[in-house]
Structure prediction request, 256 residues.
Amino acid sequence: FDFINIGRNIMYFFYDQVNLKNATLTSGDISGGSFSSGSNPSGRYNLIDESLEYGVTTMGSYVIKIALTSAADPDSIATYISSANTGGVFSLQVYGSNSDTVGSSKSSVSNESSGWDIDTITNSTAYSNWFIESDNPMDDKIFKEVMFGKQLTFDTRPDTSINEGRATFSNIKEAYSGKQFATRLSDTKKTWTLTWSNISSSFKDDLITMRDTVSLDLPFIFNDDSNSYYVRMESGLDMTEVAHQRFSTSINLIEQ
Prediction:
C-alpha cells in the first residue's frame, strides 16, 4: 500500500533503552513515600517477557518495583493492555529512584481502550529503580507488557511505497513418492520493508543507535501513522552515503 505525504511526521519506532529483560521485578506497596515488598502478583515477569500473549494476574492496586542492572534515564514508558479495564480506566503512576524512597510521580499513564500507549517521563536523572503503581483495581491478565525507552519519530517519512507482506511458517516434508506434506507451525505474520532514499546525518545516527540496541532479537514498537505493531528487525539499516551527509537505508520488520 502507499502512504501520501501530507506534511505530518508521526511515524515512529519505540525501543527499550534500559535493558529491561534483565531487570528484577518485586511487588508490594507504597506507604509514606517508600516502597515495601509484599504480595507478589502472579506472572509479573510477563510484563517484560517480550510477548503480548500473557499478562500479570492479581495485580489489584499493587506496586511493581523494576530494579534495573544499571541506572537509566528513559524518555518514555510504553504499556500494552489487551482490553479496557472494567474496574476504572487503566491508570498508572510511574516513579523513579535510586532507593526505595519513591519521590514524586515521573509519569502518568492512562489508557481507556486497548493496545499500546506511550507516555513521556518528566525526568532528567538516571535511576536504577522504577516503580509502577496502579491507580485503579486492575483486571487480571489485561496488562501484558511494559517498556521504558525512547520514541524515535521519523524526521523523514519512508519513500512513498512501503512493502507490506505476510510471512508463513510451515514444516514441509517429502515422501519417497515425491509427494509433499506441509504442517503449519504458526499463523502468518505481517512483514514490512521501509526504505529511505535520502535522510539526514542526525536521523541516520538515531537509526544506527536503535539498530545497535535492538539488534535482531529485541522487539520494539513500529507505528505506521495509524496503528502500532510489536515487531522485530529481520535485517537492514545499513547506510549508504548518497550525497554530502545524506544517506539511504532500509529496514525489514516482522510482527511478533
In short: The CA atoms of residues 50 and 76 lie 17 Å apart.
